[in-house]
Design brief:
globular, about 325 residues, binds adenosine-3'-5'-diphosphate, 12 helices, Rossmann fold
């Protein structure tokens, strides 16, 4: 057998396999060989169980805030570089490696500690359910493959709302929603094909090649999140299989001044999101609204198909958008 010194061997290897030059972090707990050589103090418990992937401007900050009010749900520690978002899977942070990412979910002593939680007047010791919200994940081609390699069983939450709610350039990335969701899920779909998962859902041939585990993806109606967050948080807890359910009805209250739901602080005091979240916009003119509806018909139809396959509710705005464009 012929071999070379390590560096030369690596150079030769990557010449032969240039597609492997970009690392992909797999889940060490899924590979007995990796698990064996992992330091004793490392555990996959310090990886998130679900991700909120955006897109931006769909209510991700409100969703994040409501989730962190839950006694058993914890997000990552804030990143000093990107405000609260870690933004691991989409950019250069990915090259900082797994330890860098996991530190965002650990306490100072390097573990994920159980904590005393009280829900419905019942106290119990629980491990937190960890999640991460990076609204930039939605728009990045690299994220599906990377996220799926590390967190193949993570649940994914995606708020989506009506296209022409407001004017402006920012709408465009919201409008691209349907096809981006499909892209994001393709990686999980491929893997779902390879494991014989009885509850996987298969698209009609040629339809987008979508195969999803229905229990992994939840599309959240952004309009409902805005107008009735208590119901959304109830359904979301069911989707995440959280037990017992935390009652948000006494914790969230509509704030007339803000025009949105906010956290209840005391009898007369609410804590709302900052001034740059929840602004008032003039209505979009009907010509632009019509144009956008028509432009996104194909994507909206794809989203409806996917929601049906996932056995999830079709939001009213989506029914209306499709109704208008036909
Ligand atoms: P604007 O930012 O245009 O005011 P994101 O956090 O993903 O960027 O989304 C921001 C949008 O969330 C807000 O739009 C607003 O429409 C929506 N939103 C939903 N629920 C909200 C809440 N309770 N408070 C403030 N904004 C909320």
């Amino acid at each position: 057998m012929v071999t070379l010194p390590p560096v030369l061997l690596a150079e030769k290897y990557f010449k032969m396999h240039p597609d492997e030059l970009d690392p992909i972090w797999g889940n060490p707990c899924d590979d007995p060989r990796h698990r064996k050589i992992w330091a004793n103090n490392k555990t996959c418990e310090s990886l998130p169980q679900f991700l909120v992937i955006g897109p931006q401007k769909t209510g991700t900050t409100a969703l994040y805030t409501f989730l962190t009010m839950h006694p058993t749900i914890s997000s990552n520690k804030p990143s000093p570089e990107t405000f609260e978002e870690v933004q691991f899977f989409n950019g250069k942070n990915y090259y900082r490696g797994l330890d860098w990412y996991m530190r965002f979910f650990m306490s100072e002593n390097g573990t994920v500690e159980q904590r005393n939680v009280t829900i419905n007047n019942q106290e119990s010791l629980k491990k937190p359910i960890l999640f991460e919200k990076s609204a930039t994940y939605f728009d990045n081609e690299l994220v599906p493959r990377r996220a799926h390699a590390l967190l193949p069983r993570a649940k994914i939450l995606v708020p989506a709302h009506a296209c022409p709610q407001r004017p402006g350039r920012r709408e465009l990335h919201v409008l691209r929603g349907a096809d981006r969701v499909v892209n994001f899920t393709q990686e999980s779909q491929r893997s779902a094909e390879s494991v014989s998962e009885p509850r996987s859902v298969r698209a009609a041939p040629g339809a987008l090649g979508v195969v999803l585990l229905p229990q992994q993806l939840l599309i959240i109606d952004g309009d409902e999140l805005r107008n009735d967050p208590v119901s959304i948080m109830y359904r979301l807890q069911q989707f995440l299989q959280i037990d017992p359910l935390f009652d948000y009805s006494s914790r969230l209250r509509y704030d007339k001044n803000k025009g949105f739901y906010c956290q209840v602080i005391s009898q007369n005091k609410n804590k709302c999101l900052g001034r740059n979240k929840g602004r008032q916009y003039p209505a979009m003119d009907s010509k632009s609204a019509k144009y956008l509806n028509v432009y996104y018909t194909t994507h909206n139809s794809a989203l409806v198909k996917m929601l049906k396959r996932l056995d999830q509710q079709i939001p009213m705005w989506l029914r209306e958008d499709l109704g208008q464009s036909s």
